[in-house]
Every structure is written in structure tokens, then in C-alpha cells.
Amino acid sequence: MEVEEEEEEEKEEEEEEEENFNLWVSHWESLVVDRLLGSRAPVLVVVYEELVARPLHTLRTVLTFLGTPVDEGRMSCLKLHIEGKFKRESSKEIDPYTPEEKNYIAAATYKVNNTLQLLGYAPLPTYPHLD
């Protein structure tokens, strides 16, 4: 009897975790779409992958968008320390998402991407790991 109870508890925990994950993704989608559609002020879309790939360029873009002067001294300092002291070397890629979670993320990303393009923004990058 105890084994059945433990299995039932595990199943309930997994279902709750999935519901929480789906809720989080849904909130992300709503937040982005609502901000894009409801903002009266200009919106700058910063894509995480672009920030990681080209941090200095992205920072310049953000500063320019905000009307903040670019301090070349600080940019030079940032360039020297861009990797950080504590960056770990990763030998393997970890995929933490289940196929169901990937489908949920892909659907939300699709909706956000459509909204971006309808409003004249550049499309999001493709995410082959969500296919």
C-alpha cells in the first residue's frame, strides 16, 4: 500500500510541477504581448541570445535607445571583463525540458514572434531545440 501511495504522490507532484511550468510560460507570453500591444512608448526588443553573442553591441544599442551617452571608458573596462571571473567551462549541454514543455514553450514563442512581426519588429531567432 505504501508503494502505491508514494507513486500517487510522485504523480501529483509531477502534475503540479507541469501546471506551474505552463503557468510561468503563459505569464511570460502574456507579459511580452501585453507590453508590445499596450505600450505608448517605444519598445526595444533585446533577445537574450544576441545579448550573449554580442554583449557590447547590445549594450550600445540599449544605451542609444535610452538616450544615454556611451561612456567609452566603461565600455573598455567591460570589454576586458566580459567573460567574468567565475564562468564555468561546460563540456556537455543539458536539456532540462520534457517534450511537452518544449511544445508549450514553442507555442508561446510562436505567438510572441507573430506579434513582434505584425508590429514591424524583427523576428525572433529560430530555436531548433524546440522543434
Give the structure's gist in a few sentences.
The chain has 131 residues and is mainly α.
Could you explain the architecture of this structure?
With about 130 residues, the chain is mainly alpha-helical. Among the domains are: about 40 residues, no CATH class; about 40 residues. It is about 65% helix and about 0% strand. The radius of gyration is 20 Å and the shape is extended. The mean pLDDT is about 90. This is Sulfotransferase domain-containing protein. GO terms for molecular function: sulfotransferase activity.
| Unreliable parts | none
Question: Helix amount, in percent?
Answer: 55-70%
**Average pLDDT for all residues:** 90
How would you characterize the largest beta sheet?
Answer: none
Question: Order of SSEs, N→C?
Answer: HHHHH
Number of helices: 5
Count of beta strands: 0
> What is the overall silhouette?
extended
Class derived from helix and strand content: mainly alpha
Rg result: 20 Å
DSSP strand (E) fraction?
under 5%
How far do the termini sit from each other?
Answer: 41 Å
In terms of quaternary structure, the protein is single chain
Jot down its keywords.
about 130 residues; Sialate-O-sulfotransferase; P-loop_NTPase; mainly alpha; sulfotransferase activity
